[in-house]
Amino acid sequence: MAKPRNKGGRPSKFTPHTVLPIVADIASGSPRGKTARSAGVGASIFYRWLQRARAGDLRFAPLDRAVQPAKDGAACTSVLTHIVVLGKGRF
């Protein structure tokens, strides 16, 4: 049996463990860049995730859907639940 091929590269920090605190802090009114840095992700990486989501990358779509209601101050519980269920511990 052939050995599975390694994709290479560094594992992504885009996990529920990282993303959920970011969305929760944005919902409470914290600035996006500061929130991302406090979660251990650079602001540029966070904005890159949003850019990928808006470009149609389905892996990052739940983040964009969660950030929009959070930014507007609306309840985002259902979107956060979607992130956890979709990710099942890992996106």
Total DSSP E strands: 0
Q: How many distinct helices?
A: 5
Low-pLDDT segments, ≥5 res: none
What is the average of the pLDDT values?
A: 79
Secondary-structure element sequence?
HHHHH
Largest pleated sheet: none
Based on helices, strands and strand pairing, what is the structural class? Answer: mainly alpha
Give the count of structural domains: 1
Silhouette:
elongated
Helical proportion?
A: 55-70%
Terminal residue distance: 28 Å
Proportion of strand residues: under 5%
Estimated radius of gyration: 14 Å
Describe the structure.
- With 91 residues, this protein is an all-alpha fold.
- It has one domain.
- Helix content is 59%, strand content 0%.
- The protein contains five helices and no strands.
- The radius of gyration is 14 Å and the shape is elongated.
Provide keyphrases for this structure.
single chain; 91 residues; mainly alpha; 5 helices; 59% helix
What is the structure about, briefly put?
The chain is 59% helix and 0% strand. It has helices at residues 16-27, 32-38, 43-54, 61-72, 77-87. The mean pLDDT is 79.
Helices and strands, with pairings:
Layout: H1 16-27, H2 32-38, H3 43-54, H4 61-72, H5 77-87
